[in-house]
Amino acid sequence: MTKFFIKNKGFSIVELLLYMGIFTILLTVILQMFGSIFDIQLESQATSSVASDGRYILSRFSYDLSRAQSISFPASPGDLGTQLSIVINGQTFIYSSGSGNLVLQNQSMDTSDQLNSTETSISELSFLRLEGSDGKDAVQVSFTLVSEATQRSGKKIVNFQTTGGLR
């Protein structure tokens, strides 16, 4: 009679250790890639929110100032203030900051709008009234936007400044 010997097939301890080592290295590389992707996404989000909010605020300021008939505050050329009050079509609009937000109030309609998104906060807001060469005054606005998204290198901080005048 022929005897068949059944061999138990399996992995030796050396093979198991080798596979576990390779798997650990592969897992570490994949986790580092995901971490890098997450960091890049946070940096992109912070940069994008600060840039888009800055562009919007500057364009809104220029648009409103070009439509304004007069500047109420700061009162005279050379004055510096944390608020800007302008009159457009008989309605008074006030730019001011509070709790890290830039707010535009329409006093005639008793409404207010937040001009920056929830992803940014504003600081160091100032308005400098300038005397225009043609007798029409101008205002220089400057402010700092800070991203709320924290990236590995810290928060994204950008300073903005522009000048606009009455038409």
Task: Give a quick set of tags describing it.
single chain, 167 residues, alpha+beta, five-stranded antiparallel sheet, four-stranded antiparallel sheet, rod-shaped
Topology:
Blueprint: H1 13-67, E1 70-73, E2 80-81, E3 84-88, E4 91-98, E5 101-106, E6 111-114, E7 120-130, E8 138-151, E9 154-165
Antiparallel strand pairs: 1-3, 2-7, 3-4, 4-5, 5-6, 7-8, 8-9
Can you tell me about this structure?
The chain is an alpha+beta fold and 167 residues long. The protein has one domain. Helix content is 33%, strand content 40%. The strands form two sheets. Strands 1-3-4-5-6 form a five-stranded antiparallel β-sheet, covered by helices on one side. A four-stranded antiparallel β-sheet has the order 2-7-8-9, covered by helices on one side. The radius of gyration is 30 Å and the shape is rod-shaped. The mean pLDDT is 87.
Distance between the termini: 112 Å
- Report strand order across the widest sheet: 1-3-4-5-6
- Classification by helices and strands: alpha+beta
Question: Topology as H/E string?
Answer: HEEEEEEEEE
Number of strands: 9
Low-confidence parts:
none
Given the structure, what is the number of helices? 1
| Gyration radius, rounded | 30 Å
Q: DSSP strand (E) fraction?
A: 35-45%
Helix content: 25-40%
